[in-house]
């Protein structure tokens, strides 16, 4: 059974906006609700209409969650933005589809071993003080770390990788040895994610 997150507003902040998506996901997973239906991509537009950047970053944030549900799509925006937005959002839905077997495996693991589908970073590094403070990254199972961009206008973000060898999901030829902080380049079409070796 899926548990749907409470409505999120079409804003960037922690006040029920995009930035609250990951914290809500982590809270629900830690109290035993791992089959999470994140709120609609782009939010509910009760307070404001989202812009295309917000919809794209929201789409990226949900790629490695159990499901994706849209309230806004690229054709809801100006003609000159539609093509770019359509291509980016399509690529993110394709990424979700590509990793669907991993999502299903993490959900099955929840049923068998009672482990969260999308745990916090500290789940795999419980004695790492830095990992204990990370609230804007999450895992899919124990092998994929996701660090969505949730700041308006940002084209990079700090990413913390705990101990271990991590392949860059956007360029598997690049490997990082954690623990390490990265200043990760993330233009609008890039979702930072990493695969543990």
TrEMBL record:
Gene3D superfamilies associated with the record: Glycosidases, Golgi alpha-mannosidase II
InterPro entries assigned to the protein according to its UniProt record, in alphabetical order: Alpha-glycosidase_related, GH, Glyco_hydro_31_C, Glyco_hydro_31_TIM, Glyco_hydro_b
GO biological process, one term: carbohydrate metabolic process
Keywords: Glycosidase, Hydrolase
Superkingdom of origin organism: Eukaryota
Pfam families recorded: Glyco_hydro_31_2nd, Glyco_hydro_31_3rd
Gene Ontology MF annotations: hydrolase activity, hydrolyzing O-glycosyl compounds
TM spans (from-to): none
Stated family: Belongs to the glycosyl hydrolase 31 family.
Entry protein name: Uncharacterized protein
